[in-house]
Amino acid sequence: MKAAAFDYVRPETLGQALHILSERGDGARILAGGQSLAPALNLRLAMPEVLVDINGLEELRFIAASDDVLRLGALTRHVDLARSEEIAHRCPLLSRAAAQIAHPAIRHRGTLGGSLAQADPAAELPACALALDAVIVASSSGGERRIAARDFFLGLYQTALRPDEVLTSVEISGLSADRIYGFAKLARRQGDFAIIGLALAARRSGRGLVDLRLAFFGVADRPMLAVRAAAALEGKPDATQSMREARAALQADLNPVSDLHASAAMRLHLAGVLLERVLAETLEPLR
Amino acid sequence: MKKRVRMIVNGDPVEAEVAPRQHLADFLRETLGLTGTHIGCEHGICGACSVRLDGAVIRGCLIFAVQADGARVETIEGVSDSGEIADLQAAFAARNALQCGYCTPGMLLTAQELLMQSAAPDREAIREYLSGNYCRCTGYQAIIDAVEATAKARREAKQ
Ligand SMILES: Cc1cc2nc3c(=O)[nH]c(=O)nc-3n(C[C@H](O)[C@H](O)[C@H](O)COP(=O)(O)OP(=O)(O)OC[C@H]3O[C@@H](n4cnc5c(N)ncnc54)[C@H](O)[C@@H]3O)c2cc1C
Ligand code: FES
Ligand code: FES
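YS: structure for the whole thing
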């Protein structure tokens, strides 16, 4: 199908973009990589009056690292996340996750900001943002807001962003040398959205993990932190011993959905499988 | 309201008025007559609409022509006429890696991109790189064969 008619503007500065958004109100829609929005337009699931193309905003295109903080511009494309040496060095979770998103042609266009704003519950990057305790920075003509990832994802395709706000960057801090990550995604075919996936972030402590954060995607209407399962594993020198407890805790942490791709029971089972797999792989280098 | 766009398509400058809602694949086909870019699903799933934009293969149905203002676009006609992928095309023909040919332009452009990045991709890597390009005819094996054979021939030609 073809998109319904819309007007199109391509501002050159963030200031211009924010001005247009505040003038055009609900009729305006931000266009970043277009890899979620263009399908919705072509299927006429979305029919905005005007597209505000932010691809000309060079100020949203950066990868900046200082001390233990990584700042990523909203227009960082999936391919840039997957290929950047800076990111591979500072926060390899993002490199791994981005390489698993869709297919090369989609990774060439899709952006970090677009993926977070889209808030698909089965998407990789929102779960990574949650695992990394990232801060999402948004601007409107009224000023800037900093939103913790845990307060950002509100439900199916729902975020804390207001229609007049542009997500400008993502900040990840606490990237000390003892940080350690794990990642896995299950899908029927390469490049499909996940049936279920897990992003793990922690710090090494002896042979165990502390500050453990387990963010599951594809289980509910938004990415979910498995807090009880993480507590069961926190600081245990031999996490495999605590695995039974952790898997049981997943029942309380996650309330998986049933859909065409998998039943709730299958998802809960797979969550346990992934937890065991990712944990074993993450702990392997500490043995 | 229509917008004026300028871009370089297969090396030639092009200027046109486009409706913002027209995606790039439709623009190439209908305004420029470059019908080698195919249209399947129009929502990013099949890869039939693959074209190069500023050097990277993208979905022609997920970008509007108005967004390509100032860009360099290459289609299957361009890479075919320049001879860039003549060996890959010959390998596709030799292995029967196409039947109806609907997916072929997208397959060729995507496979060529992989071969430019990686001299010796194994079958798994080829499958992964082509995973976003659907073929309803061949069952993929012959396509993987052709890409693998081209990689090998190019390596041998270099030595
Ligand atoms: C075939 C296919 C398979 C895919 N598979 C996966 C997958 O496995 N995993 C995955 O995670 N994704 C997948 N995607 C989606 C892809 O990752 C998108 O790139 C991503 O979801 C959206 O990013 P975008 O930059 O393309 O955003 P757009 O499509 O441009 O925008 C998406 C939404 O976010 C809003 N928005 C965009 N940028 C901003 C901003 N800076 N501030 C405020 N609002 C903004 C837009 O208004 C729109 O509502 C797939 C897409 C396709 C077509
Ligand atoms: S027509 Fe573009 S991906 Fe199918
Ligand atoms: S040859 Fe017919 S779809 Fe691939």
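YS: worth flagging: Chain A touches chain B at residues 1-8, 10, 31, 34-35, 38-39, 41-43, 51, 53, 55, 79, 102-106, 108-109, 189-191 (CB under 8 Å).
IM: good catch. Also The mean pLDDT of chain A is 95.
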